[in-house]
Design a protein that fits this description.
Layout (H helix, E strand, L loop, with lengths): L1 E6 L5 E7 L3 H4 L6 E6 L10 E3 L2 E2 L1 H7 L3 E4 L19 H25 L3 E7 L3 H11 L7 E7 L9 H10 L5 E2 L3 H9 L9 H4 L2 H4 L3 E2 H9 L1 H9 L6 E6 L9 H8 L8 E6 L12 H20 L4
Parallel strand pairs: 3-6, 3-7, 7-8, 8-11, 11-12
Antiparallel strand pairs: 1-2, 2-6, 4-5, 9-10
Helix pairs in contact: 3-4, 4-10, 5-9
C-alpha cells in the first residue's frame, strides 16, 4: 500500500492509502472494478490495512484488483467539508461531497492507470451513510461509473445501551471533535477478549488506528440519520451487499433487522445480505476479516461484469 493525496476541484484534498496494480500488471481480459473503501468513525484509511492478518491487501494483490482507502473529510490530512447548511445534515453533506468532489477526482486520477471499468464502494460503519447518499445521487449522474455498494457495521435500529447514552453525553459540550477512550472503544469494536471474536493482537493496534471523530457525524448518526436515510436508499440503483455482525453492540442485530435495512434499497437490481456470524462491530478487524474481504472482492468483480453487460 502507498499513501496518496489527490487535489479536488474546490482546491481541497483527499488523502488515503492505496494498492494499485498497473494496467500492465493486471492485464485482465475482464472488467476490473476499482474498489474505494470508506472507513467508519474513530478510524482512518489504515483501518483497511491494520496489519498482515487484518488487511485488504492480500486479496487485492492476489486478484490484481485496485483498492483505494480514503481518509474521509476531516480525518487525517483530508480537508473537512464546508459548513453544513441549516436545511441539511452532516452525513448528507459528506455524501454530496463524496459524490461531487472526491469520487470524480479519484476516477480521473486513477481509473485509466489501473484499467478500471467502474467503482465499487466498500464501507464500514459511519462510512456507509455518505456512500448511500453518493450512490443515490449517482443514479442520475454521469460523474463516474458506479457498479456496486458493499456495507457492514451499520443498521436500521440503534442499540440504545450504555454506549449510546455515553455518546450523547459527549455531544453536550459540542466539541469540534470527539476522541473515544480506548477502554470504552475496544469492547464495542472487537468484543471482550474472552468472547474470541478478535485476535488478541488487534487490541494492541487500537491506539495506532485511533482517530478523532468530527462531532457532526456522531450527532447526525445518533439523532437524525434514521429519520431520513430511506429516501436515499430508495434511489440506489446498483447491486448491494450487506452484512450485520451478530456481535455488533452499536446496532440491533437479527435477520429481521437485516431485512428491515435492505428492504429500503427498492431499486437495487441485486441485494445480498445476512448476519455475519462470529463478528463484532469491526468485521474487518475480527477473525472473520479474510472471509469478508474475499466475499466483498468477489461481489465487486461480479458487479463490474454485470455493469459492462448492462444488466442494470
Amino acid at each position: 500500500m502507498e499513501p496518496f493525496k489527490v487535489s479536488l476541484s474546490n482546491n481541497a484534498v483527499v488523502t488515503g492509502l492505496a494498492s494499485l496494480p498497473s494496467r500492465q500488471e493486471s492485464s485482465s481480459p475482464f472488467p476490473v472494478p476499482l474498489i474505494v473503501a470508506i472507513h467508519g468513525g474513530t478510524y482512518s484509511a489504515s483501518y483497511f490495512f491494520a496489519d498482515d492478518q487484518h488487511s485488504a491487501l492480500p486479496v487485492a494483490s492476489a486478484l490484481q484488483v485496485p483498492f483505494i482507502a480514503i481518509n474521509r473529510p476531516g480525518y487525517k490530512d483530508s480537508t473537512p467539508i464546508p459548513a453544513v447548511p441549516e436545511d441539511s445534515s452532516y452525513l448528507q453533506e459528506v455524501g454530496k461531497y463524496l459524490h461531487h468532489e472526491i469520487l470524480p477526482a479519484l476516477w480521473k486520477r486513477y481509473a485509466s492507470d489501473v484499467g478500471a471499468s467502474c467503482f465499487v464502494l466498500l464501507t464500514h460503519s459511519l462510512g456507509s451513510p455518505p456512500a448511500i447518499v453518493a450512490a443515490a445521487l449517482n443514479a442520475g449522474s454521469n460523474l463516474y461509473p458506479l457498479a456496486g455498494l458493499i456495507m457492514s457495521g451499520f443498521g436500521s435500529e440503534l442499540n440504545k445501551g450504555p454506549g449510546f447514552y455515553a455518546q450523547l453525553e459527549m455531544l453536550k459540550s459540542n466539541p469540534p471533535t470527539i476522541t473515544f477512550p480506548i477502554e470504552f472503544k475496544d469492547p464495542v469494536m472487537f468484543g471482550m477478549p474472552e468472547e474470541g471474536m478478535a485476535d488478541l493482537s488487534i487490541y494492541k493496534q487500537t491506539a495506532a488506528l485511533q482517530s478523532e471523530v468530527p462531532t457532526g457525524e456522531i450527532s447526525d448518526a445518533l439523532t437524525q440519520w434514521l429519520d431520513y436515510w430511506t429516501k436515499y436508499a430508495a434511489e440506489v440503483s446498483v447491486p448491494v451487499m450487506y452484512g450485520l455482525a451478530d456481535g455488533d453492540k452499536l446496532w440491533r442485530a437479527s435477520e429481521q433487522y437485516v431485512r428491515d435495512f435492505v428492504t429500503a434499497f427498492e431499486k437495487s437490481p441485486r441485494v445480498e445480505s445476512g448476519i455475519i456470524l462470529g463478528s463484532a462491530h469491526c468485521t474487518e478487524l475480527c477473525k472473520v476479516s479474510r472471509g469478508w474481504y474475499a466475499r466483498a472482492f468477489g461481489f465487486a468483480m461480479e458487479c463490474a461484469v454485470a455493469k459492462e453487460l448492462k444488466r442494470f
